[in-house]
């Protein structure tokens, strides 16, 4: 049993797995956080309409789910980050 990196609670893999379910690409092994410290927002990905994972220390909801972010890195060779780039005017 690994402790949560954020709050030091023991990670309940069952609860975390349930929480991560909409993400599909991610499993409890990708996290060192407990279910209390993980935020998942459904239907928020601008590309696939799937759920996004909100990283800690991130104040805004990401526009890309982890899978689409990875796809973008594959296709363009650069990391788009979690949010759509706002064109500078
Ligand atoms: Zn925690
Ligand atoms: Zn997506």
UniProtKB/TrEMBL annotation:
Pfam families assigned to the protein according to its UniProt record, in alphabetical order: DUF7571
Name of the protein in question: Small CPxCG-related zinc finger protein
